Amino acid sequence: MRMKIISGVFYSVVSCALCVAVWADEPELQDMSDPLAVYTQAGAGYTNQGLNIKLGKSYDSGVENQMAMNIIEIKGIYGEALGWDSGNNPRDNSVDSFRFRNFKVNTTNGRGAQVDVSYSLKESALAERSGTASYSLMQALPKLGRFQFYPLLGGGVNFGLNIVEDDGRIDSGYSVNGAFGLVGMYSKFDVTDKIWLNYNPFWFTTLSGATNYQENAYGPDQSDLLTHEFAASYQFTPRFNLRYFANWTELNDFSDGNHRLEFNYQI
User: Fold this and answer.
1) What's the predicted TM-score (pTM) here?
2) Fewer beta carbons under 10 A from the terminal one: N or C of the chain?
């Protein structure tokens, strides 16, 4: 039963990719190992929290020497049936969260800008539903042998549905409960021309807002958080790769983090 569901979802993603290919207009293939690469794409991931689906479409930004794309992700599909996480993170078969990103990069100076909006359907200590919207800048630094680094700086707001106020009352409807800043870096190490590794640390901290948010945004008495992401990737063809991701934080171990295998296809 599990394999039938996985096969069905993968077939749907491939079908979507073929549909996108009809209206995609890519001038040339992009380097899929580059965090600043912009291209039309389709992907699917098998995770300990269920299945993820990712669709991205490049478009003409209207600015000279600037490439742009939109990416939509749906996460946590069939988590109870297909995930393997422990009881620390309860799973069900409904979608866990959505993510939308708009990304632009200047091809002459290697500078990128990103709008990133995430929305979780899971209840938290802060709200019945919660999300973040942020804007960040990223800069590609000159390559150092097989290494390359992409520092990032940004900020955003946290919003939610039925937010818990400082006095414990519920603020009915949607509202913003605070602002945060983030500093981080994408890094890449080329093992071969087909294999590469990434380590991407990010530090988040609250800047303003309700006291309950500022003091507990990332857990009880946690006003800031250091997150880690490791990825190992293999490029089968210039269009198709397989990637393993591990995400964890300073509050949990590597083994207790989120793990996924992700297939990506450039259209």
Assistant:
1) 0.87
2) N
